[in-house]
Amino acid sequence: MVIQKKLSILGCRGIPGNHGGFETFAQRIALSLVERGWAVTVYCENYDRPDTFEEMWKGVRLVHIPVPHASAKSTVLFDWKSTLHAAKERTLILTLGYNTAVFSLIYRLKGIPNLINMDGLEWKRQKWNLPQRAWLYLNERFGCWFANHLIADHPVIADHLATRVPRKKITMIPYGADPIKKADASLITPYGLSPKQYSIIIARPEPENNILEIVSAFSTRHRGQKLVVLGNYYPDKNDYHRQVIDAASDEVVFTGGIYDQPIVEALRTYAQVYIHGHAVGGTNPSLVEAMAAGSPILAHDNHFTRWVAGEKACFFSDTASCGAQFDYLLNNESTLQTMGRYSLERYKETFSADQELYSYEDLFLWTLEKYRMIEPTLRQKSDKTLAGTYKQ
């Protein structure tokens, strides 16, 4: 019987995280578990070397898998190679996302327990064409069939998965975020910004994130402050990106991609309003991070964001309603203060990094014990856990 607690994380591009939510999550959970005595492996995409190689980073074992370049096809190849590598090792598997869940059949055949974080309703995203949507839809089903247990990051996602598998096979654990203890206001100065004199969007420039609607609504008239749009835009290559830039007034600031965490934290902390336009998905990490910064939230009105942002956030459904919310909020200091305090309270209550860690670790230990990969005495339960549905 294996005594050491071992976990392999697949499905993200790798750590240190500078790509998106899964990478940030993988880094946070890996470092936290290492501190608690786990042996953690994270699989990373490697574009520079033709061979698979390993290194240690802050106590985490990184396995670098070679792929030609960053692309959808390379991601599938990366997932395949990572799965083959991980299947040779006797560890618990955490797979982030179901995009290539068909590969999880290998773990089933080898008797290796695999937990899949099922993320959002990826096959509904507008950016995918019909064949891509079909692939994602099928892999959602494969994930439900082949995984030993499913993780949902939002109650609506859990309800959706319960139409595919028994409820006892699902655990709902929302994404967490580290608290922002101190943010340096001087870091926003190079972008021509002053504290509380701008609103901010941090999101990939895709139609389902409603970037065009937000920028258009803000740009309908002079606001006397700025709208910061953080993300990479390529107007010469992407029609949607060009539409967003063309719709922007001279008060809109496009910063490009920023992966320096202290700068991003400062931008969130000193923003007057955080705008979240995501219409598809579960608990969005960027929204949770904004709440951890105590930001007032203006979000697209859907059942995902309403549960996360809570009852005291403000919501919009289209360009007109978004513009009306800007008119109301940007000169309403008392309301913004109330909203900011509520964001921080909601974060502490439901989305703290500690709650996330305790929930995941409890689920991991329960799985390792169930499949006899650790001694039962090694499972240390926490009274702070949010997990529990897997015990049914």
3D architecture notes:
Helix 1 crosses helix 13 (353-370), helix 6 packs across helix 11 (319-329) and helix 9 (285-292) crosses helix 12 (333-350). The chain is an alpha/beta fold and 392 residues long. The protein folds into two domains: 6-176 and 352-387, 3-Layer(aba) Sandwich (Rossmann fold), CATH 3.40.50.2000; 185-350, 3-Layer(aba) Sandwich (Rossmann fold). The model is unreliable at 381-392 (pLDDT under 50). 46% of the residues are buried. 38% of the residues lie in helices and 17% in strands. The chain has helices at residues 21-35, 72-86, 105-110, 130-146, 155-161, 211-218, 239-247, 261-269, 285-292, 303-309, 319-329, 333-350, 353-370; strands spanning 6-10, 39-46, 53-57, 60-66, 92-96, 114-117, 149-152, 170-172, 198-202, 226-230, 252-256, 273-276, 297-300, 314-316. The two termini are 25 Å apart. An eight-stranded mixed sheet has the order 3-4-2-1-5-6-7-8, with helices on both faces.
- Which homologous superfamily in CATH is the superfamily of the largest domain? Glycogen Phosphorylase B
Q: Report the CATH architecture of the largest domain.
A: 3-Layer(aba) Sandwich
Q: How are the strands of the largest sheet arranged?
A: 3-4-2-1-5-6-7-8
Rg of Cα set: 21 Å
- Report the end-to-end length measured between terminal Cα atoms: 25 Å
What portion of residues belong to β-strands?
15-25%
Q: Bin the helical content.
A: 25-40%
Major sheet characteristics: 8 strands, mixed
Total number of β-strand segments?
Answer: 14
The overall pLDDT, averaged over residues, is 90
Write down the CATH topology of the largest domain: Rossmann fold
Q: What's the CATH C level of the largest domain?
A: Alpha Beta
**Which descriptor suits the 3D outline?**
globular
